[in-house]
Amino acid sequence: MATEFGRTPKISEVTAGRGHHPAVFTWWVAGGGMKEGYVYGNSDATGERVADKPVNMPDFNATIAQALGIDLHKVEHSPSGRPFTIADKGQPLADLFA
Predict the structure, then answer these.
(1) Strand partners for 52
(2) The pTM is what?
(3) Geometric angle at alpha carbon 66, from 33 and 77, rounded to 5°
């Protein structure tokens, strides 16, 4: 389960809500040979920035693809014919797997 952004750590005085916050957000993953009960990385004390083990999108995509058994090196083609791989140059996060 993932979202494309987190929420601001502080409630807005103007809207009384939390806005989009792409600097830090959470992904929850399970199955596919991943470790149980494992936490990878941390935010800072206020939840505003990544403090430990940042993950980029290609690495996240590679990790999910590996868990699903998808070949990371297979070249696919977009509807327009552009070649691509599922995770670009991303590498699976080996620490997440049992």
Answers:
(1) 42
(2) 0.79
(3) 155
